[in-house]
Amino acid sequence: MPADARPERIVVVGAGLAGLRGAEAIRAAGFRGSLTIVGNEPHRPYDRPPLSKHVLTGQVAADASQLPSSLGDDVTWRLSIGAETLDREARRLRLSNGETLPYDRLLIATGTRARPWIHADEAKLRNVFSIRSRDDAASLRATLAAKPKRVLVIGAGFIGCEVAAVCRELDLPVCLIDSSPSPLARALGHTIGAYIGEIHRGRGVDLRMGSEVAHLEHADGRATGARLKDGEVLSADVVVVALGAVRNTEWMTGSGLSADSGGVDCDDHGHVLDESGQPDRSIAAAGDVARFPHPLYGGRRVALEHWGHAVAQAEHAGRLLVGEDLPVPYAALPNFWSIQGDMVVKSAGLTDGADAVAIVQGDPADRRFVALYGRAGRCIAAVAVDSARWLPAYADKVASGAPFPPIDTATDRPLREPEIRDPGFA
Ligand SMILES: Cc1cc2nc3c(=O)[nH]c(=O)nc-3n(C[C@H](O)[C@H](O)[C@H](O)COP(=O)(O)OP(=O)(O)OC[C@H]3O[C@@H](n4cnc5c(N)ncnc54)[C@H](O)[C@@H]3O)c2cc1C
């Protein structure tokens, strides 16, 4: 079928947030042909953000996070079935149950999985957890509810910080360990990460920054603690591994698509690229698995792990696949939020490559502030800590690439120039 012919069969691979929103966009754009969603989890699409927050505190049940959907019963769900290979020439998928599934258009939305602990045998210990799925969160919730004596969280990224904060809300002793100098240092840089670290320390989290776990100590199939590279042993009766995510691209091996552990490459429309850099106009990708050139960042290819991005890109990709004319390039402003106990961190834009940061609203001493990041004299990202109402104004500066440092001043404090600092990226 030529790329400009009207599709009759559309397949979505990945029954997560992006898969669902993409499928809804396909129907909303008027496509009435066969629409099939293939997902290797047993569940209809559910929301992941609550899994490391309100599900762990017990405020929300793990099975109560199903995403609302406008899809009707004219969609075929193939759940607990994975796509195993992709034959682009024949336009068909081979599924894990041995079936083949033909398509005219394909939406790739296979997301990411939790990066496993470095020693596979230790990852299997009964009290070692990671959180990606709702089943993961349900098991960890049950364990936390049983009041363990001490929780060890390995990895102080967003999810690690959220889990540590939940432990303190549950009044559980918790140690948060990371080789970086401060929590969130990879995402926000050490300068802002250090402020956030102080907030966690103030809430009672035992922060072990600049430390590395060599391996987990264990007995009778359970972790008893962690041995650090410097020889110190930390005891724990629950270990949570929060080392980031790996993109689910292995099933595309052999398809000729440009894909690796960092994502599947897309052009600036959202079509996937083959290994020679040519777009395949019958396939689009969206959500955590998609790596695409972002015009705000000089066309640098980025793969985001942001809820809002998964929604926006999936809506775009769904409409693209049914042949709608869309603005090029796809350029939604990245945004993210994280709830860490009673602290809410929100961001707009991407901090990567920042060469300067300034506190432009509030004051870290009050634990409420907005940090603006600059690169080569332009605003590239803003991060608000318990100051979300200020963020939209700074998001506009990021979206328009306004000069950095900003020329206006904070409205919540006396007139003064913001101090420009090194953001502290390693
Ligand atoms: C614990 C947690 C907390 C989070 N908190 C926040 C937050 O506070 N704020 C925020 O902005 N973002 C947050 N995120 C990120 C956000 O949830 C993701 O960006 C979003 O889920 C991405 O959606 P997706 O559909 O691209 O991927 P996913 O949600 O990963 O869905 C992909 C689906 O495809 C399936 N799949 C994979 N391979 C195959 C295959 N070969 N065949 C069939 N199916 C396959 C997967 O099993 C999965 O069900 C959080 C994520 C997690 C895990």
Automatic annotation (TrEMBL):
<dbReference type="InterPro" id="IPR023753">
    <property type="entry name" value="FAD/NAD-binding_dom"/>
</dbReference>
<feature type="domain" description="Reductase C-terminal">
    <location>
        <begin position="336"/>
        <end position="409"/>
    </location>
</feature>
<dbReference type="Pfam" id="PF07992">
    <property type="entry name" value="Pyr_redox_2"/>
</dbReference>
<feature type="compositionally biased region" description="Basic and acidic residues">
    <location>
        <begin position="410"/>
        <end position="426"/>
    </location>
</feature>
<dbReference type="Pfam" id="PF14759">
    <property type="entry name" value="Reductase_C"/>
</dbReference>
<keyword id="KW-0560">Oxidoreductase</keyword>
<dbReference type="InterPro" id="IPR036188">
    <property type="entry name" value="FAD/NAD-bd_sf"/>
</dbReference>
<dbReference type="InterPro" id="IPR016156">
    <property type="entry name" value="FAD/NAD-linked_Rdtase_dimer_sf"/>
</dbReference>
<feature type="domain" description="FAD/NAD(P)-binding">
    <location>
        <begin position="9"/>
        <end position="314"/>
    </location>
</feature>
<dbReference type="InterPro" id="IPR050446">
    <property type="entry name" value="FAD-oxidoreductase/Apoptosis"/>
</dbReference>
<feature type="region of interest" description="Disordered">
    <location>
        <begin position="405"/>
        <end position="426"/>
    </location>
</feature>
<keyword id="KW-0285">Flavoprotein</keyword>
<keyword id="KW-0274">FAD</keyword>
<protein>
    <submittedName>
        <fullName>NADPH-dependent 2,4-dienoyl-CoA reductase/sulfur reductase-like enzyme</fullName>
    </submittedName>
</protein>
<dbReference type="InterPro" id="IPR028202">
    <property type="entry name" value="Reductase_C"/>
</dbReference>
